Amino acid sequence: MSGRCLSERGITILETTVILSVLFILAGAMSPIVSESVNTARAVKAKNDASMIALGLVNLQKDVGADALNLGGAGGPSTQLGAGALRLPDLLASQGSAPDVEDAQTSDSDVTATIPLLAAPGHSGVSLTASARAAMRVQRQRWRETPSGSLDDHLMNNRRGYRVRRSGEYGGWNGPYVSAEIKGDAWGRQFLINSQWLDGGSSAADAQGRIRRAVFVVSAGADGVIDTPFEQSIVDARAYGDDIVVRIQ
């Protein structure tokens, strides 16, 4: 009887504690792996969505032509388009919460890469100055300080009133250019596009000989902070930090 009682006894508190401790240790070990997998999946989704937005803007540009572009290459005044002409705003934003720019850290390599655009011609980029770092911060702040327009107004709904393409015509708004409204990136924050520089050109310099600027679709990534400068030379442009970037121009 005593043997049967021993075989039928329950798990002791000590044994339960050991089992729970092992489970907690395993869960703690797996947590970073699961978190990394989730962020990787979100980054892939954000990249795909940014690519869809970029393609939509390229197609919009082809269809409506100069109506949507700020002519003058490197961001000339909108008056160059003439009275009543339509143009893209300087910054396009999707739905979602605004990303942060305050905590972006400026490394030596970041400043060096940006010097060809931000510093005077001929700057060697060897010595890093406080002014170069300040210029980088200013360029990042422009993602938040530049007046923006709704991305959906141009790609989904034509709320800006572009001339709609008629049957048999080549040009004119022929959207929607994306399959659904852009709700934001995979973290719920806005996609931002520095559309101020979109000019439809294909050379490194515009008609006035000025270096053209790169145009990006940007997601701030997992940390929610935009690290990529707003204005970069088309010949020396890249993404920074963990930003997810698709380049249009």
Task: Give an overview in words.
This protein has helices at residues 2-8, 13-64, 108-118, 130-145, 151-155; strands spanning 91-93, 148-150, 192-193, 216-219, 244-247. With 249 residues, the chain is an alpha+beta fold. The protein has one domain (47-247). The chain has a five-stranded mixed β-sheet. The chain is elongated and about 80 Å long.
Task: Give a quick precis of the structure.
The chain has one domain (47-247).
Across the major sheet, the strand order is 2-1-3-4-5
What radius of gyration results from the CA coordinates? 26 Å
The overall number of domains is 1
Instruction: Describe the largest sheet.
Output: 5 strands, mixed
The total beta strand count reads 5
Mean pLDDT: 77
Q: Given the helix and strand composition, which structural class is it?
A: alpha+beta
The fraction of residues assigned to DSSP E strands is 5-15%
Gap between N and C termini, in Å?
84 Å
| Number of helical stretches of at least 4 residues | 5
Shape: elongated
Determine the fraction of residues in helical runs and give it as a percent range.
25-40%
pLDDT < 50 runs, ≥5 residues: 70-85, 108-128
Order of helices and strands: HHEHHEHEEE
